[in-house]
Each structure stands twice: as C-alpha cells, then as structure tokens.
Amino acid sequence: MSFKVVNTIHLPGLDFGEKLLEPLDATLVNGFWRTEDELISNAADADAVICTGPLQPFTRRVLGVLSRCRIVASFGAAYDRIDLEAATECSTVVTNTPDYCIDELSGRAIALMLALGYKLFQVQGNMKLISALGQVVKTFTLIQYAVGGAGSKKIALRRFYS
Questions:
Q1: Per residue in 31-42, pLDDT tens?
Q2: pTM for this structure?
Q3: 3-state secondary structure (DSSP) of residue 49
Q4: Using an 8 Å Cβ cutoff, are 49 and 8 in contact?
Q5: pLDDT in tens, 39-95
Q6: Is residue 156 very low, low, confident or very high in pLDDT (cuts 50, 70, 90)?
C-alpha cells in the first residue's frame, strides 16, 4: 500500500524529506495552495499533509474531504487556521513546530522595538530635511523604559536569556 504525502507549501530549493519517504513506499506531492478549493482539489486523497498553519485554511470543509488524511503537520509554530475541533472529529492529528524560528523572531522583534524607539525609520526617511532645517528628532534611552515582549514566553525571553 502506497502512502501519499502532500506538501501544500512547497518552496523551490528546500528539502522536504522526499528521500526519507522512499523506503516507506510514500510519495511526496509538492505544490503551493492557499485556498480551501485548492487544498481540496490537490490533497483530497492525501494520507498526510504538510502545511503552514497561519497561511492555509484547514477548515471543517477541507478536513471533511480529506477522508484518508491522518495527520496535518504545520511546520510553523502557529496553527490558528486549522480547525482543531473538526480535526479531532475526523481523527486527524494536528502537529506544529513550537520552536520554529524563535531565534529569528525574537531578534527581529527586539530590533524593531529599538528602531521604533529611536525613530530610525523617521530619521532615515527625513534625513535630508532634518539636516537642512537643523532639527533634532527626540528619541528615548533604554534606561527610561522597561522593554518587554508579549505573546510567547519562549520568543519574548529568548534573546534576554540566551
């Protein structure tokens, strides 16, 4: 019996483990589908689906059509567009990767907070005008404020404790 794994977020040049599936008599079908209709058309006979939870709508309608599918694996941390109640009713396991891109996201979040605090975007965009008029853009110093992150403990604390 052959298994079909459908990768709904294929990006050229990335290895999604096709060689790992060969000894399991499984084939990997790659594509980039974002709508309910596209997912149904291309993954209806899948035994497993690789997706990204925040991008694609794995709704009750989609999961109901994927009658052979036993796992929907999101390679990102989020799974907010996957209907977990419907997946449970369909006996479909939903997985995610909770530590996906924590370092990248936490670093960029801190960089963005600093850039906004120091008004780097405003200063860069108005540099010629500021120097011509001799104006000073008021910014802040880090000692004045407590900088924090909200949303995910792992992401918010990663840069401060690593």
A1: 999 999 999 999
A2: 0.69
A3: strand
A4: yes
A5: 999 999 999 999 987 889 999 999 999 999 999 999 888 888 999 999 999 999 999
A6: low
User: Which helix H or strand E contains 51, and what residues bound it?
Assistant: strand 48-51
Instruction: Give me the torsion for CA of 124, 128, 131, 133, rounded to 10°.
Output: -120
Quick count: other Cβ atoms within 10 Å of Cβ 15? Answer: 7
Which residue carries 């294929």 as its tokens? 10
Secondary structure of 85-143 in HEC code, one letter for each residue: HHHHHCCCEEECCCCCCHHHHHHHHHHHHHHHHCCHHHHHHCHHHHHHHCCCCCCCCHH
CA-CA distance, 155 to 128, in Å (whole number)? 37
Parts of the chain belonging to CATH 3.40.50.720:
3-95
**What topology is assigned to 3-95 in CATH?**
Rossmann fold (3.40.50)
Strand order in the sheet with 26-30: 26-30, 3-7, 48-51, 71-74, 93-95
